[in-house]
Sequence to fold (352 residues):
Amino acid sequence: DLGPATLDAATGAITATATVANSTSYNYTFVFTPTGNYNPSTSVALPYSVNGPAAVTTTTVSGPTATTVGSAITLHADVKSGSPATAVPAGAGSVQFAVDGTNVGSPVPVTATGADFSYSPTAVPSTGSANVTATFTAAAGQNYSASVDITGVTVAVTAPAYNPDPQTVVVTVPTGTLVISTPYTAANPFNLGSMALNAAGTGLSASAPFGSPETTAPGATDPGAIPAGTTGTPAAALTNNGVTITDTRPGSTGWTASAQTSNFDGPGANATPIPGDNLSFTGVTPKYVSGNALQTGSVTTNDITAFHTAKKSFATTTHGPGTVDIYGNLGLTAPTSTLPGLYTATVTFTIA
Fold:
């Protein structure tokens, strides 16, 4: 209890004065005790911390006192505090180095051994020497005072015995590309085969693997046969890659692969299209390329059960450049009222 507080009737402010100790935390509350027809009340606690005075520091620069133009030397700053003086801990702050009073470079974070500065003069100063000083500034939340070595180290700078011949070397990092592809084209479409009537006689369905976890040996022949009256590559004749995604962009932070399909248009004007929403892409799984940057766990996949009305994602990654194959199973259902014949749709795979 710190005693009574003062109420300012005009503003409603309540004030009280208390003496506190350094480096201590407090929680203050005000308690109102009524003398009339009022209810008593207590304020919420107000936390308050009192920091002690900042610890005094000293900064000292040391290092070589001579160099030639174009030759780098390393100067070191020690930051100490306490009695006996010991090095401030890593993260306590940073040191800004200056050459002849002008800051050079960015502040250098202090480590357990201090801070280093690489000085490489580009010309002989008019005085023949350069003065390197350093200023320490505490980091946020660190209770240390600033300090500066105003004397620093005077470095004699001389011209080299033989003039150096600096050469500029350049290199271009290409933009790179992000490509999604399948083995199929309009001239060589993916063939789901013939639809079959389900056991209940209530619908038609067809499915086939779009890619596989296996790898077709070079020169292997197509093991499947194209049904009579149809065109394209049968599902059994896959190159086994399915969807291939190749990212060659330096600095890439990943991508998202999506798919969308049109309706399946049938033969003749009387054939009702099979809705694209009846197409599904399930069992979607990444197949990683040996030795590639993308490996197990790099790519997240998900099934698409109906993707006609909107583009839907089936694979994503937050990793950088690399190549991965995505395989799964394409399945299509149709009502029994569907007229016989060849139905065709366009499935578009996109990457962003």
Remarks:
- The first strand starts at residue 6 and ends at 7.
- Residues 216-239 have pLDDT under 50 and may be disordered.
